[in-house]
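Record 1 of the preview.
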Amino acid sequence: MSERIDQRAVDELRPISFQADIAPHAHGSVLVSFGDTRVICGATIQEGVPRWMMQQNVKGGWLTAEYSMLPYSTLDRKSRDSSRGRVDGRSTEIQRLIGRSLRAVVDLKRLGQRTLWIDCDVLQADGGTRTASITGACVAVQMAFLRMIEAGLMESSPMQKMAVAVSAGVWEDECVLDLNYHEDKDASVDFNFVITEELAMIEMQGSGEEATFSEQQMLRMLELSKKGVLEIAKLQHAAIADFDARENPAVIERLREAAKKRRR
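->
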């Protein structure tokens, strides 16, 4: 195998960080960085649920996600979905994946009659934007829940466990963890794993790029991903532990006001 462009070992993650409250009007937000991939993840909680839930008498709340790549996130300018008049297929697929992943770890009944919106906007793309979005969104959602608790609107967080996503693939005939763009574009096999911090599987997406792969290679990619998940989960918990829900009292007051209006 050729040396990885950033000199990482095959089982080594890129540097990962979470910058809290990057979007001060969101109830919870982070700028998540996986190497040179950077995504702004915001979580906003609205009182009330979609009409279909009320019509079908579905209990609890709802969680949904939106994903977009900012025009300057790639080397060549990417047109906004609004200029094309529709969301492209890739963005639709990814935002559905984000929603499914977070619904797997959030107790929607404990959320109550509320809708949780997750917005993931790619600031800079260098491979793994969907895995960074899921990983960062999970942190942003937990921060939003902590603010709900601080506002007196919840007794405990509906987050049951952390969701973590990471990529793995076959590059230069070797299984590697957390592919950057240079590796991703030339990989013969590309996998995305969404796994809980307890190593329970949420979703796997994988395919050969004009190539096949063996069962042994698939198991090796899963092994690498589990190692990465355990490391990333520790970083998620560290970011949440450093977060102080009281630092943005304006957000807490808006949450309280919205709850009062609904009760009226």
